[in-house]
Structure formats: structure tokens, C-alpha cells
Design a protein that fits this description.
Elements (H helix, E strand, L loop, with lengths): L5 H9 L4 E6 L1 H11 L1 E6 L6 H4 L7 E2 L5 H14 L1 E8 L11 H6 L7 E6 H12 L4 E6 L1 E3 L8 E2 L5 H10 L1 H8 L1 E3 L7 E7 L7 E4 L4 E6 L8 H7 L7 E6 L7 E4 L4
Parallel strand pairs: 3-8, 7-9, 12-13
Antiparallel strand pairs: 1-4, 1-5, 2-4, 2-11, 4-10, 5-12, 6-10, 13-14
Length: 262
Amino acid sequence: MSIGRIEDHLKSVAGDSTVVAHYTKAGTFRDLILRDSKLRLSDLTSVNDPREYKKWSFPSFRGNTAEYEQANDYLDEQLRRHSFVLCGTRNREDEVDCYRNGMMWAHYGESHCGVCLLLNAEALATDLSNQVGDEGEVFSESITYSDELPFEVPVDVGSAGIEAGVSEFLRDENNRRFFLLQKHVAWSCENEHRWIVLNHGRKEPYYADLDNALLGVVVGTDFPHNDNITLQRRFPTSGRVMLRRLDYRYMERPIDVPIFWT
């Protein structure tokens, strides 16, 4: 097993590409992700921020007030049910640390028993773009955080009707970013990056192929030892994907170490 550091490995295989960490449970990784070599993008009703998964209300509709509820429901449906997201954690500036975020391990990495996947953001976005084609749009961007997130974004249904008005609203990139790429500053510790697919004619989830995007697999400090052999067989020492374990030592920052369990 290679004893190089993750930072050196990522520089050699990713170059200038953006590296993003995706945390998940050991069982999800073993039984689904490892089996299919794919990651699922789900709609916004599956995220854990109530501002995003709860029904949205748009108080600044312009047009016939009698159409407000219908237009509000339609826009809410288009944004939450037809926007598919995959979330990850990016590095801080000048620091390769996306896989060492203790809060992310606790919340999303099954309390340090799970797995962190290191992904090439551009490669994953390319695969999604190839899947989606002309049927939708793909974004691969970082979340911005703010203390104030007003909902005073006007939606003009006017004489054109609800569907035409909502379609016009969604064609504006700034409007999409406002609802899909902004979160309250309380979430800023996640340092989130998102892959988003917008396809207003689809309700089934997308699955991103990992064959070209996966750069490394880091298991938590309490990852089950009995899953070790499966991982070592899947990711040989000489391969492009580095396999490591995160180790914690008293009063020191976590370090990545090789997996030598037998």
C-alpha cells in the first residue's frame, strides 16, 4: 500500500482540477456506491436544510393576485422537485483539508464510521453534462453564504400566463443561483460545493458515474475493520484511487495513514 500523503496524490492525479469531498455512510458506500460506481443526485426535498426542503413561498409575484397560489405552487414544484443535487465539501483556500472536516465526519460520515470520497469536480460535471445533453442544465459551483436571504425576487406571471412567466424566471441564471446556490451563514462550516442538474421535465434522480471522477477513498477513524479486505481488493496500491484511513491522535490534527488491516 502506498504511503504517500493524500495531498501529494491529489496533485499528481488532479492537477489544477477542483477536488471536492463527499461524505457518506459505510453501508451506503459498500452496498450502493461501491457496487455501481455511481453517486445519486436527489431533488431538494432530500436535503437537510428546511429553507430548501420545505415548501417555498414567493411573496413578490407580479400579476393577477387570483393566480398567486397556483403560480407559487408551480414555481415551487419546478425548483424543488426538478432540481437534482449532489453535495460535497471543498478545500479551504491554500489548504487541502476537505477530507479532514470533523463536523462533516460527525454529521454525514456516520460519526467517523463512514467514508469520504475525493472527487474531481470537473470530471463529474462532464459526465453529468453528457448524460443530460440538451434536456437540462448542469452546474458545478460552490455555495455562497449570507446573513440575510430575502425572498423578494419578483416573478412576473403577467399576461403571459403562469407557465410562461415561471419559465422566463427560471431562464435567468441569477434567479436560479439565488435559490439553489445560496445558504445562510450558519451552514458555512460545510464549505459546500454542489453539482446541480436542472431538468423541468424529469422527476427521476440522476446518477453520476465515478469511473473518471474518483480520486481517493478515505475511511473514518472508526470505519468497520471487516470491510477492509473488500476495499483493498477494489482499490489496488498501484491504481489511480488512493485508499487511506483518517487517524486521530491526542491534541494533534487528524492525519491520513495507509490501511494495513488484515
